[in-house]
Design brief:
Number of helices: 1
Length: 311
């Protein structure tokens, strides 16, 4: 037969510290717990997702989860998935860190993974940020960092200074972020999940193939001054929806001065297995294709767009 002790107050010998209930021993209270006279706190059971209690967990049990993606207080419910399966669900979650707002921009594009497509602020230097359109491609977020959107011919090219405003995929204007911004945002020093910058012709028609840009020597960063310096880096064929980083690169781009401008990105003599054949010149009117890619015929056809996506 269970014993019964009737007392008005329980305390420790020193009247300080805590009363310890040994492990494996539970404490069941039939009445309410009143902590309203205490200005301290209630400490919940704490552990990771993998440490969640299993087995005979009563509905209504609560704990604090310390695992980053699940962090917050959680409760055990009778239907955790809408199909009648008991389990732990978040009562509310604690979130911190960048959220892509002007006041709290993402440190780098990949911090937006899992967010819906849309406009977000991303750091383009240690102390500044820029608002860009971010979109999911193959499970990864990329930022629209260049857009050839005006003119009747594809060969209108980019404006290095930028005459348009960064924004939606279908927005107007010819613009590209400054080379220093692109370099900062794709450098593994500032972005641990840097993927680079990919130029995709006819992207707006549903095509995903383009040339990935990097500095020479294996860096994933966009080359400093890569907007107006000839042969400033390497190019590789790349599909923005793939999870595989290119292993074959064109490291010997063309460097002539066609159209009296600087030949920035050019592989117009061959194309082949390493990069798609096209040239982009600093002088307006000199973007040219010499191989059919993404539904664009060779030459300087009209009515096409080119987009630059960055991660």
């Amino acid at each position: 037969m269970a014993s019964k002790i009737k007392v008005d107050e329980i305390t420790t010998v020193s009247e300080s510290g805590s009363i310890v209930v040994p492990g494996g021993v539970g404490l069941s209270l039939a009445g309410p717990i009143d902590g309203s006279s205490n200005t301290g706190y209630w400490a919940l059971p704490t552990g990771t997702t993998s440490q969640r209690p299993s087995g005979s967990v009563p509905v209504g049990a609560i704990r604090y989860n310390t695992t980053e993606e699940d962090r917050g207080m959680e409760i055990y419910v009778a239907d955790s998935d809408g199909a009648g399966t008991p389990g732990w669900v978040a009562a509310f979650q604690f979130t911190s860190g960048p959220d892509g707002s002007a006041a709290n921009p993402f440190e780098y594009v990949s911090q937006a993974d899992g967010q819906p497509d849309g406009m977000y602020y991303v750091k383009n230097s240690a102390s500044t940020s820029v608002e860009l359109y971010l979109k999911n491609h193959g499970g990864r977020m990329f930022a629209l960092a260049a857009h050839r959107g005006t003119g009747t011919n594809f060969n209108a090219g980019f404006s290095n200074a930028g005459t348009g405003t960064p924004g939606q995929v279908t927005g107007g204007g010819d613009w590209i972020l400054a080379a220093g911004d692109l370099n900062y945002m794709t450098s593994t020093t500032n972005n641990p999940d840097a993927w680079g910058m990919v130029l995709i012709p006819n992207y707006n028609s549903g095509y995903n193939n383009g040339n990935l840009i990097r500095s020479k020597g294996g860096s994933r960063a966009y080359p400093t001054n890569g907007n107006n310096t000839e042969n400033a880096g390497d190019m590789a064929k790349y599909n923005i929806t793939t999870g595989t980083y290119p292993s074959s690169w064109n490291t010997s781009l063309n460097t002539n001065t066609y159209c009296s401008g600087t030949q920035v990105w050019a592989d117009f003599t061959g194309g082949g297995t390493t990069s798609y054949g096209f040239r982009w010149n600093t002088a307006g009117g000199c973007t040219y294709f010499n191989e059919t890619v993404n539904g664009i015929s060779t030459g300087q056809p009209g009515g096409y767009y080119i987009h630059g996506w960055l991660r």
